[in-house]
Amino acid sequence: KNQVEQSPQSLIILEGKNCTLQCNYTVSPFSNLRWYKQDTGRGPVSLTIMTFSENTKSNGRYTATLDADTKQSSLHITASQLSDSASYICVVSDNAGNNRKLIWGLGTSLAVNP
Amino acid sequence: GAVVSQHPSWVICKSGTSVKIECRSLDFQATTMFWYRQFPKQSLMLMATSNEGSKATYEQGVEKDKFLINHASLTLSTLTVTSAHPEDSSFYICSASPRGRLNTEAFFGQGTRLTVV
Question: What is the dihedral of CA B68, B74, B75, B81, to 10 degrees?
Protein backbone atom coordinates (compact mmCIF):
# COMPACT_ATOMS: atom_id res chain seq x y z
CA LYS A 1 0.00 0.00 0.00
CA ASN A 2 1.34 3.44 -0.93
CA GLN A 3 2.01 5.43 2.20
CA VAL A 4 3.85 8.49 3.38
CA GLU A 5 4.76 8.73 7.04
CA GLN A 6 6.14 11.82 8.71
CA SER A 7 7.85 12.39 12.02
CA PRO A 8 7.66 13.95 14.43
CA GLN A 9 3.94 14.65 14.48
CA SER A 10 4.62 17.98 16.18
CA LEU A 11 7.67 19.96 17.18
CA ILE A 12 8.35 23.06 19.25
CA ILE A 13 11.60 24.96 18.86
CA LEU A 14 12.98 28.33 19.84
CA GLU A 15 13.42 31.08 17.32
CA GLY A 16 16.83 30.93 15.68
CA LYS A 17 17.29 27.21 16.16
CA ASN A 18 17.52 24.61 13.41
CA CYS A 19 15.29 21.59 13.00
CA THR A 20 14.91 18.56 10.77
CA LEU A 21 11.67 16.90 9.76
CA GLN A 22 11.52 13.34 8.48
CA CYS A 23 9.51 11.61 5.78
CA ASN A 24 9.46 7.90 4.94
CA TYR A 25 7.50 6.60 1.99
CA THR A 26 6.54 3.32 0.43
CA VAL A 27 5.18 4.72 -2.84
CA SER A 28 6.02 2.73 -5.94
CA PRO A 29 6.66 3.51 -8.68
CA PHE A 30 8.17 6.82 -7.67
CA SER A 31 8.03 10.03 -9.68
CA ASN A 32 8.86 12.89 -7.35
CA LEU A 33 8.74 14.02 -3.74
CA ARG A 34 7.52 17.40 -2.61
CA TRP A 35 7.58 19.37 0.59
CA TYR A 36 4.80 21.86 1.22
CA LYS A 37 4.32 24.44 3.93
CA GLN A 38 0.74 25.00 5.03
CA ASP A 39 -0.16 27.86 7.31
CA THR A 40 -3.31 27.42 9.38
CA GLY A 41 -6.36 28.16 7.27
CA ARG A 42 -4.38 28.52 4.06
CA GLY A 43 -3.58 26.36 1.06
CA PRO A 44 -0.23 24.55 0.80
CA VAL A 45 2.76 26.38 -0.65
CA SER A 46 5.49 24.45 -2.41
CA LEU A 47 8.95 24.47 -0.86
CA THR A 48 10.83 21.89 -2.93
CA ILE A 49 10.19 19.18 -5.48
CA MET A 50 12.76 16.45 -6.14
CA THR A 51 12.93 13.69 -8.68
CA PHE A 52 14.61 10.31 -8.33
CA SER A 53 18.03 11.57 -9.36
CA GLU A 54 18.16 14.52 -6.98
CA ASN A 55 19.70 14.12 -3.53
CA THR A 56 19.27 17.60 -2.17
CA LYS A 57 17.49 20.81 -3.02
CA SER A 58 17.45 24.13 -1.23
CA ASN A 59 14.97 26.97 -1.11
CA GLY A 60 16.32 29.73 1.10
CA ARG A 61 16.51 28.44 4.66
CA TYR A 62 14.82 25.19 3.65
CA THR A 63 16.92 22.25 2.48
CA ALA A 64 15.37 18.96 1.47
CA THR A 65 17.23 15.70 1.02
CA LEU A 66 16.14 12.54 -0.71
CA ASP A 67 17.48 9.01 -0.46
CA ALA A 68 15.60 7.03 -3.07
CA ASP A 69 17.27 3.79 -2.01
CA THR A 70 16.00 3.91 1.56
CA LYS A 71 12.89 5.89 0.53
CA GLN A 72 13.54 8.62 3.03
CA SER A 73 13.49 12.37 2.83
CA SER A 74 14.19 15.14 5.28
CA LEU A 75 13.47 18.84 5.43
CA HIS A 76 15.99 20.94 7.32
CA ILE A 77 15.09 24.43 8.44
CA THR A 78 17.93 26.68 9.50
CA ALA A 79 17.79 29.77 11.69
CA SER A 80 14.08 29.34 12.30
CA GLN A 81 11.77 32.34 12.36
CA LEU A 82 8.40 32.83 14.00
CA SER A 83 6.82 32.78 10.54
CA ASP A 84 8.04 29.22 10.06
CA SER A 85 5.30 28.08 12.42
CA ALA A 86 3.11 25.93 10.16
CA SER A 87 2.40 22.40 9.08
CA TYR A 88 5.02 20.84 6.79
CA ILE A 89 3.67 18.17 4.51
CA CYS A 90 5.61 15.57 2.57
CA VAL A 91 3.90 14.47 -0.64
CA VAL A 92 4.99 11.75 -3.03
CA SER A 93 3.87 11.41 -6.62
CA ASP A 94 3.79 8.02 -8.21
CA ASN A 95 4.55 7.50 -11.84
CA ALA A 96 0.97 7.80 -13.01
CA GLY A 97 1.77 10.84 -15.06
CA ASN A 98 -0.41 13.45 -13.42
CA ASN A 99 -0.97 15.22 -10.14
CA ARG A 100 -4.00 13.11 -9.32
CA LYS A 101 -1.79 10.46 -7.87
CA LEU A 102 -0.34 12.38 -4.96
CA ILE A 103 0.19 10.49 -1.72
CA TRP A 104 -0.01 12.90 1.20
CA GLY A 105 1.63 12.64 4.58
CA LEU A 106 -0.18 13.88 7.65
CA GLY A 107 2.35 16.63 8.17
CA THR A 108 4.55 17.84 11.00
CA SER A 109 3.16 20.72 12.98
CA LEU A 110 6.02 23.09 13.79
CA ALA A 111 5.76 25.83 16.38
CA VAL A 112 8.57 28.36 16.62
CA ASN A 113 8.50 30.23 19.90
CA PRO A 114 10.27 33.49 20.72
CA GLY B 1 5.50 31.32 -9.45
CA ALA B 2 2.10 30.49 -10.82
CA VAL B 3 -0.89 31.83 -8.92
CA VAL B 4 -4.13 30.06 -8.17
CA SER B 5 -6.89 32.18 -6.69
CA GLN B 6 -9.80 30.72 -4.78
CA HIS B 7 -12.97 32.58 -3.86
CA PRO B 8 -14.51 33.03 -1.38
CA SER B 9 -11.96 32.45 1.36
CA TRP B 10 -14.72 31.70 3.82
CA VAL B 11 -18.49 31.27 3.68
CA ILE B 12 -21.26 30.55 6.15
CA CYS B 13 -24.49 29.15 4.79
CA LYS B 14 -27.72 27.70 6.08
CA SER B 15 -28.39 24.00 5.94
CA GLY B 16 -30.13 23.05 2.70
CA THR B 17 -28.68 25.85 0.59
CA SER B 18 -26.01 25.57 -2.11
CA VAL B 19 -22.59 27.18 -2.14
CA LYS B 20 -20.32 27.80 -5.12
CA ILE B 21 -16.54 28.01 -4.79
CA GLU B 22 -14.40 29.34 -7.63
CA CYS B 23 -10.85 28.38 -8.50
CA ARG B 24 -8.92 30.46 -11.03
CA SER B 25 -5.46 30.07 -12.46
CA LEU B 26 -4.38 33.68 -12.88
CA ASP B 27 -1.30 33.48 -15.05
CA PHE B 28 -1.43 30.09 -16.72
CA GLN B 29 -3.85 27.74 -18.41
CA ALA B 30 -4.87 24.56 -16.67
CA THR B 31 -6.72 21.81 -18.47
CA THR B 32 -6.92 19.94 -15.18
CA MET B 33 -7.67 21.22 -11.71
CA PHE B 34 -8.07 19.27 -8.51
CA TRP B 35 -10.45 19.74 -5.60
CA TYR B 36 -9.49 18.68 -2.10
CA ARG B 37 -11.16 18.60 1.25
CA GLN B 38 -9.32 18.92 4.53
CA PHE B 39 -10.65 18.25 8.03
CA PRO B 40 -8.90 19.65 11.12
CA LYS B 41 -5.51 18.08 11.79
CA GLN B 42 -5.85 15.84 8.77
CA SER B 43 -4.15 15.89 5.43
CA LEU B 44 -5.71 16.91 2.15
CA MET B 45 -8.07 14.39 0.63
CA LEU B 46 -8.65 14.45 -3.11
CA MET B 47 -12.33 14.73 -3.97
CA ALA B 48 -12.32 15.06 -7.72
CA THR B 49 -10.36 15.93 -10.81
CA SER B 50 -11.82 18.72 -12.89
CA ASN B 51 -11.25 18.43 -16.62
CA GLU B 52 -11.78 21.38 -18.95
CA GLY B 53 -14.57 20.70 -21.39
CA SER B 54 -15.50 17.30 -20.01
CA LYS B 55 -16.97 15.64 -16.95
CA ALA B 56 -15.11 15.63 -13.68
CA THR B 57 -13.64 12.44 -12.29
CA TYR B 58 -14.72 11.76 -8.73
CA GLU B 59 -12.84 9.77 -6.13
CA GLN B 60 -14.47 6.79 -4.51
CA GLY B 61 -17.00 7.80 -1.89
CA VAL B 62 -17.51 11.34 -3.18
CA GLU B 63 -21.07 12.04 -4.32
CA LYS B 64 -20.99 13.65 -7.75
CA ASP B 65 -24.55 14.92 -7.44
CA LYS B 66 -23.73 16.68 -4.21
CA PHE B 67 -20.42 18.18 -5.25
CA LEU B 68 -20.98 19.60 -8.72
CA ILE B 69 -17.88 20.55 -10.64
CA ASN B 70 -17.78 22.71 -13.73
CA HIS B 71 -14.60 23.47 -15.66
CA ALA B 72 -15.86 25.69 -18.43
CA SER B 73 -12.59 27.39 -19.34
CA LEU B 74 -8.86 26.82 -19.13
CA THR B 75 -8.59 29.15 -16.16
CA LEU B 76 -11.72 28.52 -14.11
CA SER B 77 -13.19 25.58 -12.25
CA THR B 78 -16.11 25.79 -9.84
CA LEU B 79 -17.23 23.47 -7.06
CA THR B 80 -20.85 23.72 -5.95
CA VAL B 81 -21.85 22.07 -2.70
CA THR B 82 -25.54 21.39 -3.14
CA SER B 83 -28.04 21.08 -0.31
CA ALA B 84 -25.29 21.64 2.20
CA HIS B 85 -25.46 20.01 5.62
CA PRO B 86 -23.38 20.65 8.75
CA GLU B 87 -21.24 17.60 8.00
CA ASP B 88 -20.13 19.33 4.79
CA SER B 89 -18.41 21.98 6.89
CA SER B 90 -14.76 21.72 5.98
CA PHE B 91 -11.81 23.42 4.33
CA TYR B 92 -11.94 23.08 0.54
CA ILE B 93 -8.81 23.61 -1.53
CA CYS B 94 -8.21 23.58 -5.27
CA SER B 95 -4.98 23.09 -7.14
CA ALA B 96 -3.83 23.37 -10.72
CA SER B 97 -0.75 22.67 -12.77
CA PRO B 98 0.28 24.53 -15.91
CA ARG B 99 -0.90 22.95 -19.13
CA GLY B 100 1.42 20.21 -20.27
CA ARG B 101 3.08 19.92 -16.87
CA LEU B 102 0.65 17.69 -15.05
CA ASN B 103 3.22 15.75 -13.09
CA THR B 104 5.23 18.68 -11.90
CA GLU B 105 4.60 21.29 -9.33
CA ALA B 106 0.99 21.82 -8.32
CA PHE B 107 -0.13 25.27 -7.22
CA PHE B 108 -2.80 25.59 -4.60
CA GLY B 109 -5.47 28.13 -3.93
CA GLN B 110 -5.70 29.73 -0.52
CA GLY B 111 -8.64 27.52 0.43
CA THR B 112 -12.28 28.12 1.34
CA ARG B 113 -13.57 27.57 4.85
CA LEU B 114 -17.19 26.40 4.57
CA THR B 115 -19.39 26.43 7.65
CA VAL B 116 -22.92 25.10 7.36
CA VAL B 117 -25.26 26.11 10.17
Answer: 0
- How would you write B60-80 as a 3-class SS string? CCCCCCCEEEEEEECCEEEEE
Is A37 strand, coil or helix? strand
- Measured on CA atoms in the order B114, B35, A106, A60, is the torsion positive or negative? negative
Residue A32 to residue B95, Cβ atoms within 8 A: no
B106 with A102: Cβ contact below 8 A: yes
B43/A44 touch (CB, cutoff 8 Å), yes or no: no
8 A C-beta contact, residue B81 and residue B66: yes
DSSP string over A80-114: --GGG-EEEEEEEEETTSSTT-EEEP--EEEEEE-
pLDDT in tens, A32-74: 899 999 999 999 999 999 988 899 999 999 999 999 999 999 9
- Chain B residue closest in CA terms to A42: B110
